[in-house]
Design goal:
Shape: globular
Radius of gyration: 29 Å
Oligomer: single chain
Helix content: 10-25%
Structural class: alpha+beta
Length: about 700
Amino acid sequence: MTKRVIAVGAAIVVGGAAAGSVALVSAANSTPPAAPRTTTAAPPSVASTPTPTAEAAPQPAAAPRSVPAVGDFDSWTQAPTTKIARVVPQVGQAADGAVAAYVDAPVVDGKTAALAVDAAVVAGDTYEFSAQVRSLTSLPEAVSASFDVGGQRVALSELSATWSTVSGTFVAPAGAKKAQVRLILEGPVSGLGVDKVSLVGKDGKNVIANPSFEKVGGKDTIVNRSLILPASDPMLAVRAPAGAVSWTATDAGGAVAAKGAAEVSHSLDSVPLTGLKEGYYNLSVKTGSGTVKTQLGVVDYDGTSIAADQRFGVGLHVEDGVYSDAADLTSSLGIGLARNDVLWRWNETTKGKYDWEKHYVNGFDRLHAQGVHLLGIVNYGNELYGNGKVPESPAAVAAYGKYAAAIADRFDLVGLEVFNEFNHTRFNKTACGTKPSCYVPLLKSVHSAVEKVDPDLPIIAGSTARYDAPWFNGLWRAGGLAYSDAMSFHPYEVSSKPESLAGVIDEANRSMKDNGKTTRPIWITELGSSSKTGGRTVSAQADYFVRTSVTALSSGAEKFFWYDLINDDRDPAKHEGNFGMYYQKATGVAAFPPKPVGYAAAIMIARLDGRALEATESAGKGIHSVRFGEEKDAVRIVWAPKGKTEMSVRSDTPVTVTNMVGGSRTVQPVDGVAKIPVTVRPQFVESTVAPATPTPTPSPTVSQAPAE
């Protein structure tokens, strides 16, 4: 039988009894849904056109006081994180109980079931279907999702943050013993909530198991999906015995920033962190089952998460099990890019056949689902073609290029980097050696092979240990620029003086011009610093990240990748184990706690909010001031490497100054100028200037403050 869809008023009716049928009504909670009915189109008739009645504009709905958590729903199938970024519990202000389902999907590749549950039905019986749905928008907006009830599509109306009802009638087809109810995503969705799903037969019983998503697996006490919380309403999701839950947040100096208590009555419940302002904190939570401690950050941002910034990347090791949540951790900081090895010897174990290692497939597909793009490193050699370190023979070099093309064909990439630190004997002990003339065949092979499958994909040349000036001079003289879309290096030599990175980038540009007659974009694809005991403190590590990344961008680098995302070791004394933006997981806490450097990335990216780099300003001796955005809506990142001083900023409104741990203060301008104290620690300065008049405005002036 041909299916037919007849739209009448606010209802969508789907016909086709052989497959079951559903009639849909969508309405706000305040208006009960109309009774489901089958509608037949009326014959055409002639009638006068009525005068339209003005409809009242919808009122903005307040954002729900809720927090995404982690855990598997009993009875329901959740889409894997390789397909949909987040299908998780949402705790707080549910339509029924304390928990709802929450879906956030910045990338959706074709129609995908985010949630599914099987319900036992009796063939020929009629069932009433309903569900509560909402989004996180204040005003109603279209949502790229629908329900599928036993094979019949049930569209969603425009949704806002207020719970709305979708309802209809389902007739179980002949021979049916079960019907599957699915939430289908037809495109990206942001903050879609679902609760109180029911399919009720004539006996009055709901045949949907766990209909309000209250049964959630897990053992941790603090079950937030992320410990980067929105400043608009920071909350915890906790699993605790019924009764009191108390909490205390202390700042970096150990002072109590805020504390509170709440009564919980559900096995999974929300605890508002009332009074906790933007900042980085140590948190202690006491429940009836004990005390749990963690670090967390509160950041002022709009939307479901910090908007991704494609200028910033981070190194990953998805082959390590601790990185299974790497995609979510990366996107939670607003970082838009990730860098990872794609080891040749693991993926081509039979000549010409690529069997991708599961950790690469899952890890990289999770990045794609989160909207984070991968910089893949074509590493290293393959024993099938000689040594396992570096391709040397013509056959090995050709196979290396074909492997790179296979990576480009399979994964969502921002670029492909040709080898890692070829100039370093740690990775290259072959007969040809580390000379750039030995590297050019690899670069050429990758460029030629990838161009056939993805001609627009950037090929990144170099990836050297430190900036190796003689090596790059030789590479460009050997014609390397012809096979490069960008060049990269790992300038660890700037460790003692982050701002010297500007000179390194200048030298790199001069080398390309002098030896290759042109330039390519520069990507800093690896730079980091350990916070090991006795070395840089975690605060100094955070400062170093901001100072190097902002110096890189302001000096003309196109992208900056920090090394790396998660501490490799729990021992704070291990040098190699403490480069991460996150600590490893704490006992009783589901999410990875951010380190100060992770918080610094989150607050900087949130403050920049996509603003373009506009100027490196002359703000006075010893002051670095980099402005993002136009003067009328500027964010400056400022610091003074040699210590405390003062700068002047033009502004027509009070200037907001935010430090590295989220503390903010307001500086009142006098005669349109605000005096800003500047220290070695970077600060984020937000100012507003009215449109310029025909009279030129003088450059900012600086006055030195007395030494402390």
